[in-house]
Write a structure and sequence with these properties.
Number of strands of chain A: 2
Structural class of chain B: alpha/beta
Bound molecules: adenosine-5'-triphosphate, magnesium ion
Strand content of chain B: 5-15%
Helix content of chain A: over 70%
Radius of gyration of chain B: 21 Å
Strand content of chain A: under 5%
Strand order of the largest sheet of chain A: 1-2
Distance between the termini of chain A: 52 Å
Radius of gyration of chain A: 20 Å
Shape of chain A: globular
CATH architecture of chain A: Orthogonal Bundle
Helix content of chain B: 40-55%
CATH class of chain A: Mainly Alpha
Structural class of chain A: mainly alpha
Strand order of the largest sheet of chain B: 6-5-7-8-9-12-13
Distance between the termini of chain B: 34 Å
Number of helices of chain A: 13
Oligomer: heteropentamer
Largest sheet of chain A: 2 strands, antiparallel
Chain lengths: ~300, ~425, ~260, ~280, ~350
């Protein structure tokens, strides 16, 4: 009985009690959602353009952040360190294409998925050999301060992340929809062999996509690294991005953002108001349940490409 | 067994220098390694018996822990320091059968403090439950006495795992006794994202926060506390939530953060100086790079000392030679860390004296509280003894339940 | 088979079917019937709605309007597996074999509906499960024999050339021993000789087992030779319906579909 | 076209430097399945050459060996060489081949399901660098050839009918403005009228734009009408070749590929089942 | 030439349907069983049992389970860990509530609990496909573990929040608990693996298996020929979860001895997934080979450098081990995307033609 009350009555009273706080919860949710989206975006790019579910995205985030911090620790100025890391991510993309992808043309999704798991191990290993496993503080000058506005608490880092994410998503969405290369990328995701047959150079396409995904990982690494310190745990952020990815649709760039916002708000509101009734820490599975609920109505995710069923 | 020369005492080391908990695992592993090395270099071993040791990487993963355990067991291990709650749970039942004692110093299964049921497991000098009670006492000293606790609001932010939940029963029991208000906030593994938890803190505005965190959760919590504007000197971590790895990423904001402690930090202790001298040849920079003097490093030194002293104690009874697991167990059970001994070991004031007994594998040792100054940690309290009259009965009850479930007949400690 | 001994019962009756996808009207008020035991062809230009028609008959598409009567039972909507249970089997325009399985397994799958033992027996592979498996294996072997694909029994179908895949697909449909067999371009991508073989199989099935067949095919010589009656669709509309000769002579059909024939 | 004329052009073309030569290639799938056991053929510049043969003879494999799509199927050319326009092309990527003007229309359509029909066509122009206007013109041309595609241009290719997909696949290749097209079973699944149209397009392109064709085709009748030269493949070997007219006259070809028995065309209804094919080998 | 089927005629369909229709294969299998049941127990020491063989067999059972679902029925699942947890917690509850129940039977009953939950989380599979389906199973993964962690009833409210295998015996032999001898636990795991692998093989070569594969290869066509998708998929979920459940029970009761929910975290699910992909999707034998590969390789890599006398720092050697592990995964996938099982098959095909190249 008490449980029922905790679930069906108290949370609503709580919300009604302090609407400003409710608004704050929603805004925090939106801002954490954006942080998830940053990671989800990397997944979307690669999936959309090659049909590969890149398990190593989390490792790429770590790898980029570790390299950046490592370089900065060696005394390299911030801007140059960022450029060098970006360059390294491009080199990495070339290596990945050379050593891995080109040998796996036309294989099923799950096989490519597995290969990226192999990649994940390699990146984790190399990154840590090169830069160690310690926690490192990352500060490239993005302000990380809180301020109160209209009774609500904001953090400048979160706001910057939101801005950066908005810019990235707009650019990428336009790129995919309106350029010839974007079209070619989508073609590759549909059918490797047919893409080859019309002369789409899979190799350079893959290098481009993985490079862009690497750069997105770098951005995610910078923001998350500033937030939680650069360390191995960054890899696990990928798990937070999964429900976002699924809810938004594997193939949709805007989906990654909208999905992030929905998940962010959903899990925060639920955790803050309903968490206590269930004993807390429910946001983890709730994100997945929420994604699942959306999928029941749209099996391809909110903005994903329709799954074609024909005979 | 054959690999160990007759006059060597083998110490297995389950370490995690890689993976998500590496930032915590590295200083721990270094501390053990350096203490053992120093003992050989300075004293030529334990009463002439050389100390040998080998690391096995567990990545803080229980399943890898099994492999390491079996491998090191085969090499003649006589005492395990698992350094992971999961691995400890898993080794406790084995210890009895394999006749290799476990020392889980300040972690693992609290009920193991009851030596009648957990004959082979030791968790001295103190446990999670005792620690929680010292925290309550510490708050009381700050608020002006135990009677002032009534109406104080304490939040417990904990890692949502068996480890994180350990303090809950004690905090509950004491809340009933002293009348403070307790809010429990769980943070899901691994804890990089804690907005929801801190929104709750903002809403409920507790007076004190106690945290049972681990790994990245600590760093994020400290940062979130800073940005929420929570007064840092009212934010207290347990002894796994108070190391340099936790405070450094938060930068200046972390000033004033507190945590429980079992021992002193820094390099100003004779024992640490000995390590710098014998292991690093006096090279301070190299020592600093190896995290000498950091909280978790010093913890491992303390832990390493316990193992060595247990062997020494056993040698007192069985002779100066290589000890077996059973003999080491005896040594642990009869370990008497007196002030005089601490002084001799170069650890006077580093930690508090205690004496293990057949019945009490914990000793209810005192806990101190330390504060982050931006460069290091500083004690800000006296050594506070646990509220044993509340904790001990809980321990005995839990141990009895375990004994019943696992068909163990408690030994008679006379 | 001559006209007299063909029974006049109607096995399948399609009435006023309309189906549209967004703006595309794939079928527009189509009606025709299929008599028991006949070979009924559906022809029409590309995109006329032929495959969609078959999809409606076996329940994969749900027409917005109209009804379908099969074996005297009228229905508006049904699930594909229900249609299969009622005795409708089919092949597909884009081969829809189970690529990871061998030819034999594909054909055995066709007999799935007829197999009943529960999975516990199967896990043990004893008693009824084993007997049943053997009994159906025999039936499957008869189909294999009939289609002359013995050599590729154990080959994974993904590796087979196109024409053989089509044949295996036919085998899978036949294994179900259907009353109504829907064939969507069974002879596409075959050379003349292979078409002859395929025609032979179709005629034999029709002849020996009395299976009713609805056939979509673009090769006019085949259609005209083996079908009893022909329906012509043209972008969703019914253009003509009648015997091959009648249809062939129809000027609309020539304009819309046949073009000038080169024979 | 009279048989005489065909023979002449065919013969002349054979004499001219061939655009494409395949020398005695061997192809193995999955490291163990030997499919082509030494196939040689030549396509003259501006010629149309037909590749005939039963199911599984290796026609598709041959085309893929030329267009270098085999790798994607875990197949490889283990012997022999392939030359086009005077250079070895065995190791060129398909992108380079398309740039050089050699493009394949794959068997079984292979449209990009999630792209619209028009986007599908546009992917064909990926390698072109001659400007939007020229590409738009090609698109117009394709729509002119296939008016049905214009009607369906905004629908997702995955949802179009089999024939529409086939048109899309052919149209997509035309968009590349190729010198040589490898056509794998273009007539499959097309209405009779359209089959004629496709071959008219082929001959049109061949005459006006000098596009050469290597076409694998089951519809032997039509293929031999438009091609100048033909190869017959059996079990991974070329068992017969010759100019189209002579092949058409060959008794075996007549019986097995054209269905013309000595007494003229025979009804499919009257085929006997005990008849077994004669083997050349 | 040593490996060939020429001259081995099968006179009955039954003989042709045998699991190993070729005599060399039968000999090989007999040899494997002989080694597993007789040779290894004579030779292995506790390290081998406890660190290598027992986990290998248990992982193999879980891998077979996942392979049934993912490899045969084509439904991607990342909830293996949770289904294993159900088996483990059910066993714990059952054997503490009914101490006299035969422990082997308890394992099986626990499997049924897992099967039941598997069905519930399988329901979305009717609408959701491919990688998207992974979300449903991930929801299971996170929710179930949260539940076991949160609700004290599951671990009998003991304050440590963990479950521990109590000592249980059968015919006077300790099967579980710390006193159970490694050899006993070895035989229990091996016994379960043998029986369950055989049952799985029987299932997948019969009607049920064919319907799974049909759904996997082309679900629409499968439905059109009369295979009911929901029923078939749910059956796959149920049976797969049953296998995982039993594996989970053995995982705690015959191997770890004690664990908290973290032992069943998402990385366990991933690990089992690796096994079946490396071993070969849609192959029972492959599941076992994959389990062997994924469990043995790291152990091998960790133990090699010290064995050949190269002392490397612990962390460095772990990182190198990770890199080599990653490289080998990629290498194997490039060499043969269809896994070890396929590699094995190709090897046999080559042997058959030996000494001719093809
Ligand atoms: N599921 C669908 N969604 C959208 N449009 C569809 C769908 N199915 C069919 N269509 C459209 O309906 C029309 C008829 O298609 P259908 O496949 O029935 O043609 P068809 O007569 O079989 O042609 P073909 O001979 O080329 O196979 C086509 O224009 C096709 O694009
Ligand atoms: N990916 C593959 N793996 C293994 N074998 C293959 C593969 N592709 C084709 N084959 C085999 O190669 C042989 C030739 O196939 P190919 O597709 O080239 O024949 P085709 O002449 O094009 O036949 P069709 O007229 O049916 O298209 C066949 O026996 C086939 O089984
Ligand atoms: Mg059609
Ligand atoms: Mg072909």
């Amino acid at each position: 009985m008490e449980f029922m009350e905790n679930v069906f009555v108290l949370p609503f009273l709580d919300i009604a009690d302090s609407p400003v706080f409710f608004l704050e919860v929603i805004i925090s949710g939106l801002l954490s959602g954006v942080m998830y989206s940053l990671v989800a975006l990397g997944f979307v790019l690669i999936f959309k353009a090659s049909g590969v579910f890149n398990f190593a995205q989390g490792a790429m985030v770590l790898f980029a952040a570790l390299t950046l911090v490592g370089l900065m620790e060696q005394g390299v100025p911030v801007v140059i360190a960022i450029l060098l890391t970006a360059l390294l991510m491009v080199v990495l993309a070339i290596l990945i294409e050379h050593m891995m992808l080109r040998h796996l043309v036309n294989q099923e999704g799950i096989i490519l998925f597995m290969a990226t798991i192999g990649l994940n191990f390699i990146l984790e290993g190399v990154g840590q050999i090169a830069w160690g496993s310690d926690v490192k503080k990352l500060d490239i000058g993005i302000p990380d301060q809180s301020f109160e506005y209209a009774g609500m608490l904001f953090n400048t880092l979160d706001l910057s992340a939101a801005l950066i994410a908005a810019i990235m998503v707009t650019t990428l969405a336009l790129f995919f929809q309106y350029t010839g290369t974007g079209r070619a990328l989508r073609a590759v995701a549909d059918d490797h062999q047919a893409a080859l047959s019309v002369g789409i150079p899979l190799k350079s396409i893959w290098i481009i996509v993985w490079s862009v995904a690497g750069l997105v990982a770098l951005v995610a690494g910078i923001l998350w690294g500033t937030k939680v310190g650069v360390q191995f745990s960054l890899v696990l952020i990928a798990l937070k991005a999964l429900p976002v990815l699924i809810l938004g649709g594997f193939t949709s760039v805007p989906g990654a953002i909208i999905g992030g916002l929905i998940i962010g708000v959903g899990e925060k509101v639920v955790e803050v108001y309903w968490g206590p009734a269930f004993g807390g820490a429910i946001e983890g599975w709730f994100a997945y349940m929420l994604a699942l609920a959306f999928l029941m109505f749209r099996p391809q995710g909110l903005f994903g490409e329709k799954i074609i069923e024909r005979v | 067994e054959s690999k160990i020369a007759a006059a060597e005492q083998f110490f297995p080391m389950l370490v995690y220098r890689t993976g998500p908990y590496a930032p915590n695992g590295i200083p721990v592993a270094n501390g053990f390694r350096d203490y053992y090395t120093m003992i050989n270099a300075r004293d030529g071993g334990i009463n002439g018996v050389k100390v040998s040791f080998e690391e096995c990487e567990t990545k803080y993963n229980t399943k890898l822990g099994v492999e390491c355990y079996e491998k090191l067991k085969g090499k003649g291990a006589t005492l395990f320091n698992p350094y992971s709650t999961g691995i400890t749970y898993q080794l406790i039942p084995k210890a009895r059968v394999d006749k290799i004692p476990i020392l889980s110093m300040g972690y693992g299964r609290t009920a193991a403090a009851d030596g009648r049921v957990f004959q082979w497991t030791f968790n001295f000098p103190t446990t999670y439950w005792s620690q929680a009670s010292t925290f309550v006492k510490y708050v009381a000293t700050q608020e002006g006495g135990l009677d002032k606790l009534n109406g104080v609001h304490i939040a417990h932010i904990y890692h949502n795992s068996a480890y994180g939940k350990e303090a809950n029963p004690t905090l509950d029991a004491l809340s009933e006794k002293y009348g403070y208000k307790l809010t429990k906030i769980a943070v899901d593994h691994p804890g990089q994202e804690q907005k929801a938890a801190w929104l709750q803190v903002r809403r409920k505005r507790p007076d004190w926060i106690f945290m049972s965190g681990w790994g990245v959760m600590n760093q994020v919590a400290i940062k979130e506390a800073v940005s929420t504007g929570f007064p840092m000197d009212h934010f207290v971590g347990n002894w796994w939530s108070g190391s340099e790895a936790d405070t450094v990423p938060a930068g200046d904001g972390a000033f004033g953060y507190k945590s429980a402690a079992l021992h002193g930090t820094g390099t100003d202790w004779p024992v640490i100086q000995d390590i710098i001298k014998h292991v690093y040849g006096g090279d301070m920079a190299l020592a600093a790079e190896n995290k000498v003097g950091e909280v978790l490093y010093n913890r491992a030194v303390l832990n390493g000392m316990f193992g060595i002293e247990a062997v020494r104690t056993a040698q007192g009874k069985y002779g100066n030679k290589q000890m077996t697991g059973e003999q080491v167990r005896w040594g642990l059970e009869n370990l008497d860390i007196s002030n005089a001994k601490l002084k001799a070991l170069g650890m006077e004031g580093f930690t508090q004296p205690f004496k293990v007994s057949c019945k009490d594998h914990e000793t209810g040792g005192p806990v101190a509280f330390q504060q982050w100054t931006g460069k290091g940690w500083q004690f800000v309290s006296d050594w506070i003894t646990p509220i044993t009259e509340v904790v001990r009965p809980m321990v005995e009850e839990a141990a009895a339940a375990y004994a019943k479930e696992n068909k163990i007949t408690p030994v008679n400690c006379g | 088979m001559s006209e007299q001994n063909r029974s006049p019962d109607i096995l399948l009756n399609v009435e006023g079917i309309s189906l549209s996808f967004g703006g595309v009207k794939a079928l527009n008020n189509i009606s025709f019937d299929v008599r028991k035991g006949e070979i009924r062809a559906i022809i029409g230009p590309n995109g006329a709605g032929k495959s969609s028609m078959l999809n409606c008959i076996n329940g994969f598409y749900h027409p917005q309007e109209g009804q379908i009567t099969f074996k005297g039972e009228t229905r508006k909507q049904m699930q594909p597996h229900k249609a299969a249970e009622q005795g409708i089997a089919r092949t597909f325009q884009n081969i829809a074999l189970f690529k990871g399985m061998s030819t034999l397994d594909n054909i055995m799958t066709g007999r799935n509906l007829k197999m009943k033992t529960n999975f516990l027996w199967q896990a043990l592979h004893l008693g009824p499960a084993r007997r049943e498996e053997m009994q159906h294996r025999e039936a499957a072997e008869r189909v294999i024999d009939f289609l002359e694909i013995e050599q590729i029994r154990k080959t994974p179908v993904g590796r087979l050339p196109y024409g053989l895949q089509k044949r295996v697909e036919l085998g899978r449909a036949l294994a179900a021993e259907p009353d109504l067999l829907l064939l969507d371009e069974p002879m596409a991508g075959m050379n003349h000789e292979e078409k002859e073989d395929m025609c032979r199989y179709i005629l034999d099935v029709n002849d020996q087992l009395g299976t009713t067949i609805v056939l979509i095919e673009h090769d006019m010589s085949v259609v005209m030779d083996i079908s009893d009656r022909v329906v012509v669709l043209d972008y969703g509309k019914l253009l003509a319906d009648g015997t091959p000769d009648v249809v062939r002579a129809n000027q609309d059909v020539i304009n819309a579909y046949l073009g000038v024939t080169h024979e | 076209m009279t048989a005489e004329a065909v023979r002449q052009t065919g013969g002349a073309a054979q004499a001219a430097a061939p655009l494409l030569t395949v020398n005695n290639i061997e192809v193995i799938y999955d490291h163990v399945i030997l499919v082509l056991k030494g196939v040689s053929l030549a396509v003259p510049d501006g010629g149309i050459v037909a590749l005939l043969g039963a199911n599984g003879a290796g026609k598709t494999t041959t085309l893929k060996a030329v267009s270098n799509l085999l790798r994607a199927e875990r197949g490889e050319v283990t012997k022999g060489s392939i030359e086009a326009m005077g250079e070895r092309i065995d190791s060129l990527s398909s992108n380079e081949l398309v740039r050089r003007g050699i493009i394949q229309v794959m068997e079984g359509r292979h449209c990009f399901e999630h792209l619209t029909v028009e986007e599908n066509l546009m992917t064909g122009a990926y390698t072109r660098r001659d400007g939007r206007a020229a590409i738009a013109q090609s698109l117009e041309k394709v729509y002119h050839y296939f008016p049905r595609l214009r009607e369906r241009r905004t629908s997702q290719a995955g949802y179009t009918s089999g024939g529409e997909q086939q048109m899309t696949a052919i149209g997509r290749a035309l968009m590349a403005n190729p010198k040589m097209i490898l056509l794998d079973e273009p007539s499959m699944g097309l209405a009779p009228q359209l089959v004629e149209e496709i071959f008219e397009i082929v001959s049109d392109l061949n005459k006006q734009e000098k596009v050469s064709f290597l076409l694998a085709e089951q519809n032997t009748m039509v293929a031999l009408r438009y091609a100048e030269y033909g190869y017959i493949l059996e079990n991974g070997r070329v068992v017969m070749d010759g100019d189209a007219a002579s092949l058409r006259e060959n008794e075996d070809v007549k019986e097995f590929y054209l269905g013309l028995a000595s007494g003229g065309r025979k009804s499919f209804r009257d085929v006997k089942h005990y008849r077994r094919r004669k083997r050349w080998l | 030439m040593f490996y060939r089927e020429a001259g081995q005629f099968k006179n009955t369909y039954h003989a042709d349907q045998a699991i190993f229709p070729i005599i060399q294969d039968r000999w090989f299998m007999a040899l494997v069983l002989l080694v597993a049941f007789v040779v290894i127990p004579l030779w292995a020491n506790e390290y081998w049992f406890q660190a290598v063989l027992i986990p290998l067999y248990i992982y193999a059972i879980a891998a077979i389970g996942l392979n049934i679902l993912t490899g045969y029925a084509g439904q991607v699942s990342l909830g293996t860990g949770a289904f294993m947890a159900i088996g483990a917690y059910a066993t714990y509850k059952l054997c503490t509530a009914f101490p006299d129940l035969n422990i082997l039977i308890v394992f099986v009953i626990s499997g049924f609990f897992a099967a039941g939950v598997g069905i519930v989380f399988g329901i979305p599979s009717l609408r959701i496909k491919g990688f998207y389906l992974a979300v449903a199973t991930l929801a299971a993964q996170f929710f179930i573990l949260w539940l076991f962690n949160k609700v004290g009833w599951f671990y009998n409210n003991n304050p440590s929040g963990t479950i521990t295998a109590p000592p249980r015996e059968l015919f006077g032999i300790m099967i579980t608990g710390p006193e159970a001898h490694a050899l006993t636990r070895y035989y229990v795991s091996l016994g379960f693996l043998s029986v369950m692998a055989l049952a799985a093989k029987n299932l997948v070569r019969g009607r049920v298996g064919r319907s799974w594969m049909a759904i996997r290869d082309m679900d629409i066509a499968a439905e059109i020929i009369g295979i009911e998708p929901l029923k078939t998929k749910l059956m796959a979920f149920a049976i797969s979860s049953f296998y995982c459940g039993v594996a989970g029970a053995l995982f705690i009761f015959c191997w770890l001895g004690s664990a908290e929910t973290e032992a069943f975290d998402i990385f366990l699910s991933f690990q089992i997934m690796f096994m079946i992909i490396i071993g070969g999707l849609g192959s029972i034998m492959g599941s076992i080979m994959g389990a062997a590969f994924i469990t043995l390789l790291p152990i091998f890599l960790t133990n090699v450098p010290p064995m050949i006398g190269i002392p490397i720092a612990t962390d460095l050697s772990k990182h190198i081990e990770e890199i080599i592990f990653g490289v080998l995964i990629v290498f194997f996938l490039i060499a043969e995307p269809h896994g070890l099982a396929r590699l094995w098959q190709i090897a046999k095909e080559k042997l058959r033609q030996w000494p001719f190249p093809y």
